[in-house]
Structure formats: C-alpha cells, structure tokens
C-alpha cells in the first residue's frame, strides 16, 4: 500500500470540482471553509470548475478529468481535495489518467460522491485515500475537523465517538474490538462500481486477506429495501470475503417507505451474525470521523463508547 507524502505548514491543497461546483447558495460557507484551512497553515487554490453555478455538475466529464489530472501533475499542489459532493462523479472516471497518480502519488480527500474516485484509487492502484471532508466542509470549528487536519499532517489521533444522545453507536451482535484494512465509502456510489472496469475488489481482498477487513458505509438517502439488496449484491460478488466487522454511519435522509423494514433489520438480515455497528460517526451526519482507506483500522465498540485507531500497513 502506498501512503502519499503528508503535508506540513505552508503546503498547498489543490481543490477541484469532480461533481458539483460551488454555486451562489454555497459560496459564503465555501469561502469560510477555505479561510479556515488557510488559518490552519495550508495554502489553497482552486481549478476553474470549482466556481460553477450549474446546479447539477460543475463541468463536462472531460473537463473534470482534465482538471483533476492537472492537479496530480502540478508541482504547486501537495494534495487534492474535492470541492463538494453531488451525483455525477462516476461519469468522469474514464477521463482520469490514473497512471499519473501512480507515478506521482498524492493524498486525495473527499466524501459522498468522491467515493467513486477514492475507492478506485485505493482498491485498484494501492494508493491510500482519505474519506472525511470536502474542501467546503471546514466552515465551522469542531474537534472532528482538527482530527481531519491532523491526519493529513501524518498524525493519526485516536478518534472517539462524539456524544449525540440518542444517536450513539449501536452494536447489533454485541461489543467488539477488531482490526483490519479499512475500506468503504458512500454506499450509493459503491454500488455503481460492481462489474465495471474499475472494480478490482476481488484482487484487492485477496492481496490483503491476511489482515482482514473493516468495511464502513456512509448512508445518504438509500431506502431500506435497496440497502438490503445492495448488501446482498456486495456479499454475492465476493467483496466481503475476510471481513471482520462492518461500520454503518447515521442515515442522512431516512427512506423507509413504511415501517415494514427498518435500517437495523435490513442490515442484520443481510449480514447475519457478523460484527456490526450502526449510527457511527462516519459520513454525512456531523460530527464525523476521517477514515484512511488502505490503513489498518482498529474499531473498538463497547455499548455507545467507540473509537477508531489507524496505522500504516507494515
């Protein structure tokens, strides 16, 4: 596993919009986020497609790929952050020259729609990526943002669950303490990868099987029925071989249709007696952990108390 060079003070973050750009509605909060990154000691610059008023996607698939490629080769960009999430990143993957990143590894960070890119970089090209924050996510102060910035500096703090009263982490089959290669992302994006040229998961899990795996899933608005079927699809495709535990984030926009199938039941019906935790601090619902795809993660969950500790593969 390749771990790109971490950042130090005055290093530069290159920002691009691989999905949605920053429209008028998000402009003020985005500028606040960039100012906060600058205050924390990082320089920043944006590719042209970031400030786009298109309500769906920043630019064409070819332009998005070209601007990402330019950041990979740019000597001015020490790492790459995605500006925002969205719905259309998947269509630009064929315009990304992954060989450039293989020859010049850099940290790539984002969450939500950037899943498609991060997951492929790690599972197909053995380059670690960071699932945690988009560049526009640092618009407020919280420990979770400090933890995120510590990670890109090469410090791996032990991230502990945040107290959210009724939204505490919940195990489905009892407490557990497990370690394995941590991998995952937004489940609505991951399902599009199966069976495509970008799906290298079978080879990935075989290569690193001696470590086992911790799969994490960010749930945006997937229905309970779709969640059950997608998990079965992943399992039948072989993605879950050698898995030690599953971590599910809090659902951002619940979509149950009716009360006949809850999220908890959908997950347990699909995964059985596996070690599972739900309502975790991962994903769209803040505060949230930052996760390094391709690191060894240790997840310890005891009742509502939980922690994530990460380290490099030796």
Topology:
Blueprint: E1 12-16, H1 24-39, E2 43-46, H2 61-73, E3 79-82, H3 98-103, E4 107-110, H4 115-125, E5 129-131, H5 143-152, E6 159-160, E7 170-171, E8 176-186, H6 187-190, H7 201-207, E9 213-218, H8 224-237, E10 243-249, H9 263-271, E11 276-280, E12 291-293, E13 296-302, E14 305-311
Parallel strand pairs: 1-2, 1-3, 3-4, 4-5, 8-9, 9-10, 10-11
Antiparallel strand pairs: 5-12, 6-14, 7-11, 8-13, 13-14
Helix pairs in contact: 8-9
Strand content: 15-25%
Which structural class fits the helix and strand makeup? alpha/beta
CATH superfamily heading of the largest domain: LD-carboxypeptidase A C-terminal domain-like
Give the topology string: H per helix, E per strand: EHEHEHEHEHEEEHHEHEHEEEE
CATH topology of the largest domain: Glucose Oxidase, domain 1
Poorly predicted runs are: none
- Work out the helicity level: 25-40%
The count of β-strands is 14
| Principal-axis shape | globular
What is the CA-atom radius of gyration, in angstroms?
18 Å
Name the average pLDDT. 95
- Please describe the biggest sheet, giving its number of strands, its sense, and whether it closes into a barrel: 8 strands, mixed
Number of domains in the coordinates?
A: 2
Gap from first CA to last CA: 9 Å
**Shape-level CATH architecture of the largest domain:** 3-Layer(bba) Sandwich
- For the biggest β-sheet, the strand order reads 6-14-13-8-9-10-11-7
- SS element count, helices: 9
Q: Which CATH top level class of the largest domain fits? A: Alpha Beta
């Amino acid at each position: 596993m390749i771990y790109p060079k971490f950042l130090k003070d005055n290093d530069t973050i290159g920002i691009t919009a691989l999905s949605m750009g920053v429209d008028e509605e998000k402009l003020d909060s985005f500028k606040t986020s960039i100012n906060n990154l600058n205050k924390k000691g990082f320089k920043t610059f944006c590719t042209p497609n970031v400030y786009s008023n298109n309500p769906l996607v920043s630019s064409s698939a070819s332009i998005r790929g070209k601007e990402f490629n330019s950041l990979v080769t740019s000597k001015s960009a020490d790492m790459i952050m995605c500006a925002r999430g969205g719905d259309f990143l998947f269509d630009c993957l064929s315009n990304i020259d992954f060989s450039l990143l293989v020859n010049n590894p850099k940290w790539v960070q984002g969450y939500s729609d950037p899943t498609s890119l991060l997951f492929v970089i790690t599972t197909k090209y053995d380059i670690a990526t960071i699932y945690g924050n988009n560049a526009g996510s640092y618009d407020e102060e919280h420990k979770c943002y400090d933890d995120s910035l510590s990670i890109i500096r090469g410090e791996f703090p032990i991230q502990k669950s945040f107290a959210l009263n009724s939204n505490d982490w919940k195990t489905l089959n009892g407490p557990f303490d497990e370690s394995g290669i941590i991998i995952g992302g937004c489940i609505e994006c991951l399902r599009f990868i199966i069976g495509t040229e970008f799906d290298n998961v079978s080879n990935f899990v075989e290569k690193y099987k001696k470590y086992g795996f911790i799969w994490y899933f960010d749930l945006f608005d997937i229905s309970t029925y779709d969640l059950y079927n997608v998990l079965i699809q992943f399992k039948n495709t072989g993605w879950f071989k050698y898995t030690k535990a599953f971590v599910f984030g809090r659902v951002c926009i619940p979509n149950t249709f009716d009360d006949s199938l809850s999220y908890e039941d959908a997950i347990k019906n699909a995964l059985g007696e596996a070690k599972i935790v739900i309502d975790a601090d991962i994903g769209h619902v803040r505060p949230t952990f930052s996760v390094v795809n391709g690191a060894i993660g240790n997840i310890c969950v005891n009742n509502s108390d939980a922690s994530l500790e990460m380290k490099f593969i030796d």
